[in-house]
Design goal:
Thiol Ester Dehydrase, Chain A, 4 helices, 2 domains, globular, 238 residues, 11 strands, 11-stranded antiparallel sheet
């Protein structure tokens, strides 16, 4: 069992942690190179001591002081998202932000995509539709040195998972819909993403049913290599 505290910097919905950040912290405790499924069960509090404990099937659980399970992770098959759209960095860079999506953002202080956050201290990705690419949205991203990273510039796993989390909501949850929160993130990180390296972050919708919506995301390098891939489940708040 190990201790974990999510700093207030990594906020998602108000007073709780960004879901992708939590997913990445737990995924980092799984076997290297494996795809991981992370299920978020309750809001994860900020600046609070939490425990990570082993779970059945080779997984882990994040628990609070009352022993409630806040999130769980387990090894899983690769995310089923279909083919990754063939969108390069230039096209991702040209995909403009959607003012309505930012103006009506339900969580403006979100570390991953909040319009009140800056890439100086957050991931702060704001994708837009790619011209001529159907439902695909994208943005270019050059991670800054203010993000957690290793001495060689490799971003911390939890930061990569944040970049997979939030962008998947933009083409998936309609602007003006009731707020949605991340319920599950299935992801795989195949290669490092580094500080100062420009990559394309792509996202596209996968369907919806009832209160649930599904979206996909990918981080793609300049050579077209897929660095990371995810499938997200978004759940409408009642």
């Amino acid at each position: 069992m190990s201790r974990l505290v999510v700093d207030r910097r990594f906020e998602g919905p108000p007073a709780s942690a960004n879901g992708g950040y939590v997913a990445g912290l737990l995924a980092a405790r799984m076997p290297a190179g494996a795809a991981v499924e992370v299920t978020l069960r309750l809001p994860v509090p900020l600046d609070t001591g939490l425990e990570v404990a082993a779970a059945s099937g080779g997984g882990v659980e994040l628990r609070d002081a009352r022993d409630a399970v806040l999130a769980s992770a387990r090894p899983a098959p690769a995310p089923e998202v279909g083919p990754v759209p063939d969108i390069g960095i230039a096209a991702a860079r040209a995909a403009g932000q959607t003012p309505e999506a930012l103006r009506e953002h339900p969580f403006p202080r979100c570390f991953g995509c909040g319009p009140q956050r800056s890439q100086r201290d957050a991931v702060a990705l704001h994708p837009g539709p790619v011209a001529g690419a159907g439902d695909t949205w994208a943005t270019a991203w050059m991670p800054g040195s203010g993000l957690p990273h290793a001495p060689d510039g490799t971003l911390a796993p939890e930061i990569v998972w944040v970049a997979l989390d939030c962008p998947s909501s933009f083409p998936t949850v309609p602007v003006g819909a009731v707020p949605h929160v991340l319920g599950r993130l299935e992801g795989r990180v195949d290669a490092p993403v580094r500080v100062g390296e420009e990559v394309a972050v792509l996202s596209w919708p996968l369907g919806h049913e009832g209160r649930k919506r599904w979206g996909a995301s990918a981080i793609v390098g300049a050579a077209g290599d897929v660095r990371a891939l995810a499938r997200a489940t978004w759940i409408a708040l009642r």
